[in-house]
Every structure is written in C-alpha cells, then in structure tokens.
Amino acid sequence: MTHGTTDASLLVMHPELQELPFDAWSDTRETIHRWSQILGKIQLKLTPHVNHWWNVALQVTSHGISTDTIPYGERCFDMEMDFIDDVLRLRTSDGSIWVVQLGPRSVAEVYADVMASLEDARIEVHINTIPAEIENRIPLDRDFEHASYDKEYVLRWHHAASWAATEMGRFRSQYIGKQSPVQLYWGHFDLSLSRFSGRRCITAPPADPIEREAYSHELFSIGWWAGDNRYRRPAFYAYAAPEPSGFPVARVSPQEAYYNAQLRGFYLDYDDLRDADEPDVLVLDFFQSAYDAAATLGGWDRMALERGFEGAISDVNVFAPTYAR
After folding, report:
1. Which of 98, 59, 63, 57 is nearest to 77 (CA)?
2. Which residue stretches of 215-278 are H helix?
3. Is the distance from CB of 201 to CB of 129 less than 8 angstroms?
4. What whole-number distance in Å separates Cα of residue 231 and Cα of residue 23?
5. Structural contact between residues 291 and 252, judged by C-beta atoms closer than 8 angstroms
6. pLDDT per position as a tens digit, 228-279
7. What is the distance, to the nearest Å, from the Cα of residue 118 to the centroid of all Cα atoms in its chain?
8. What's the CA gap between 219 and 200, in Å, rounded?
9. I need a labelling partner for 143 at 20 to 30 A (CA). Which of 230, 261, 279, 292 fits?
C-alpha cells in the first residue's frame, strides 16, 4: 500500500480532481473493480428486480462505495468498501458489524472473507462468480492474479467519483420526468444517470436480455468512468438510445467535447476539466448541451419533463444551476 508524496504536478487548481493516468493504476483499478462486483452480485441476488436494473447498482459514499440496504428475512443489511479506513464492512440491522480488511489482497481472499462474514451473519447467498462485462474473466473465488491496492490512486478515484456524482446530482435536480438515481454500475465500473422521455423504444430490441431491460424505453444518459481498453483515459460521456438523427453532429459544449463514433456518444475528457477555472460549470454545460441536442432532435415533450418550462412545477425552491439557459 502506498500513500505517495506531494508533487508539484499534483497541485492542481481543484485538488479533488487529481490525475488518473490509465496505466499508472491499472492493476489497482482492476482489483477494486472486481471487489465491487462481489458486492453488486450479492445485491443482485437478494433484492427484488427494479426497472432497468436499478436494484443492482452501487452508490458512492463519503468513504467509498456501498450497496443499498438489502432486505433479508426480518433483518436488513448493507456492505460498504471504505477506502479511507481500508476495510469492507458488513452491517446488519440488529447492530452487528463484520469487518474485512482491504489492501494489497487478492480478489479471491476478499471474496472468501466476505462470504465467511455473511455466513457468520446467518445470511445465505450464492452468486455467479464469473465477472460481468469485464476482460480476463477469472472467477472471483479463484482470482489470485488481481491483488493490487495503491491507496493514493484509490483515493484519487474516489475523490473524482464523488465530485462527478455531485455534479450529476445537480443536473438531475432539474428534471421532473422519470429518471434514475446517480448510480455506480459495477459491470463497466462507471457512474451513470439516465433520463427517460416516457416513450418505449421503437427500434429492434437488443438480443442481450440485460440490454433489452436497460434500453426498453427511450433515454438520455450521462456518466463518468476511469476508462477501459476501449477508451484509455477517464472521461465524462453522454449518449441517447435510440440515437436521434443528427445527434452525432450536434453542437455540444464545451469546445473540448467531441462525438466518439465507436462508442456512440459525446465524450469530455476528465483532464480537460482538471485545470479549468470552473470545472463544475463546464461539466454541467456538457450535460445540458448534450441533453438539449438529444431531447430536441428526439422530439421529447420538454414542457412536461423539465423545470423552467411553462407547466413545470414552479412553486418549489430548487437549486438554480449556473448553466441554466
């Protein structure tokens, strides 16, 4: 475990937005990503299905990432990976706590300790140990290859994810139609927020049953991730499904944003925000301008779906963002 030393290159204008070079922490990222799948798969197994798989996603907390509250018989429990104290806590509603040590430990070791803690807590659960939506799919219970934990980069990721979740939450506050919470999906290890037009998708449904559920209705999504081998740098993204005609050539702000044809969405690199005077303004402008393009080109009923349009709820005191037009 390394904590590193202060370097002049890290003294950026916004210390919560520190550098996250893809290769520098790839081993650690692959390890904590797989740990998150242990939590996510437990939550998937024990929670009732919610539309678009909202019941399986994790949450960013002040110390790390966690499940939602999971019902189990007459009790409930939650699980949190605390990156400040380097522990995974299992907490039950009867006041009991089990602690699993994090650090430079293999995925298999952490998996075994988590399952032993659940057994001690009298919680029976069996999960599919094959990682989802990930390369090198070593079963979680046999994965001794991924065992890295560079705490400096773990905290950099957590600070960036916390900042991104906050800004996505601000953007979320302006929509009164159906929308998801800000969620951490453990498949691609990305933060995501989706707005829905209220209409079913009219395109042919995806063959994959997971995607069929996720994209059953017309949506616009934004998110943030640390990247993978398809996009080897952290970035914010925005896309529409189905994608309306003209969306790839729409005008999206700020000027650094661009359309990625391979991934079918607009991208704004995290590094383009790190030294900006007002990164919050830029990222909210990215979200809003991409949404404007998707909703306008897609013919959404914006008057019924958004605050600020005639007919929207006007008698509540809500956050008035600087990006409002």
Report:
1. 98
2. 271-274
3. no
4. 12
5. no
6. 999 999 999 999 999 999 999 999 999 999 999 999 999 999 999 998 999 9
7. 25
8. 9
9. 230
List the structure tokens of 137. Answer: 């799919």
Residue bearing tokens 């957590």 = 158
Sheet (strand 265-269) strand order: 183-185, 190-200, 217-225, 235-241, 265-269, 258-260
Q: Are 92 and 137 in contact (CB under 8 A)?
A: no
pTM over 0.85: yes
42 Rama class: left (phi>0) / alpha (psi -120 to 50) / beta = alpha
Predicted confidence (pLDDT) per residue in 147-170, tens digit: 999 999 999 999 999 999 999 999
Cβ contact 246:297 at 8 Å: yes
Binning the chain into helix, strand and coil, the percentages to the nearest 5 are 30, 20, 45
Which residues are 241's β-sheet partners? 219
Token pair of 129 as six digits: 């140990």
Whether a cis peptide bond, with omega within 30° of 0, leads into 181 is: no
Percent pLDDT > 90 in the chain is 83
**Phi, psi angles (nearest 5°) of residue 256:** -75, -15
Angle at 320 between CA 314 and CA 323, to 5 degrees: 125
Closest CA to 267 of 316, 222, 297, 312: 222
DSSP bridge partners of 236? 224, 268
Which segments of the chain does DSSP mark as H helices, in order? 26-46, 107-120, 151-172, 209-214, 271-274, 279-297, 302-305
